[in-house]
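Predict the 3D structure for this chain.
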Amino acid sequence: MNVTVTTDDTCSPVATHAIGQDAASSVAATLKALADPLRLRMLSAIASDPRGESCVCDLAELADVSQPTVSHHLRVLKDVDVLMSQRRGTWVWYSINPNRRRAVTTLLDSFAPATVAASWSDGSAEDARHPDLDTRVTHLADELAAEISDLDRAVVLTIVRESYTALARTARVTSALIPLTERFARQRLSDLTRDRDSAVPQVLFVCVANAGRSQLAAALVNQIADGKVVARSAGSSPADSIHAHVRSLLAEIEGDGAAERFPKPLTDDAVRAADVVITMGCGDVCPIIPGIRYDDWAVGDPALASREGVEAIRDDIAARVRTLVNELLEETP
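Done. Predicted structure below.
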């Protein structure tokens, strides 16, 4: 006997809600082209290059492979319109296709960190090296969520995980990652909850490595302004440590507080929280957000200077900082 049962749970086809066949085929082809570790690393290198493009000779240093192999991988990315190329002389330069930049940014800044974070508890190699890492990060997020009741716990957890992932990219000593993650996450959460109407002016200094000029500028603002102006610093491609000459100068400026400084990646949160964003003459590009003042200081690079040269750079920055602080304090009601 055939029995027909009708309930409210009867399956209802939703095929019309799915992505179209042609669109799915196009997306799948792009994802297939991206599904290679070296290609993803090259894409990341190009996206973070302060010049806005990278040469084949630069990208060949990412892996122990021949230049023709590198060219092959780049051609695959170019075939799916992720990259564009231009030959100049004997070298070919690659840049992100402007029409795909938003997708590339989402992939590298959102999807990749989320995937890495999820792998911590999936028996990955990272999890094998640090079996308690996910527990420690979650515990840190719980502590910060309890302190900052204005933000949802899920937001705090995301900030903490993203902060860890961003710092882990350049970390030499993984044992220090949790303390550094806490400092970086606290700064980001503070930026998210900043009240512009009542807070003192905030300045963000940006350079590529966040290992020299921007660190000096932030330290000098905090010293000269004595709490009446707050300074942050960040880099589009942060180094793994601060330049040795700069670190010694920071110690002279901040004393023991200099030990708390470390290179940090640039985030949209930091830009949005700033009243003034200053790039340090190194070609960095920041998100343009209405209501924020932007400036560029063409100062020397400490990485290429002697001790005496670094001191001269410090003095140049200090003079600019005094002018900036005076301007901001005059504008403050």
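Confidence is low (pLDDT under 50) at residues 120-129.
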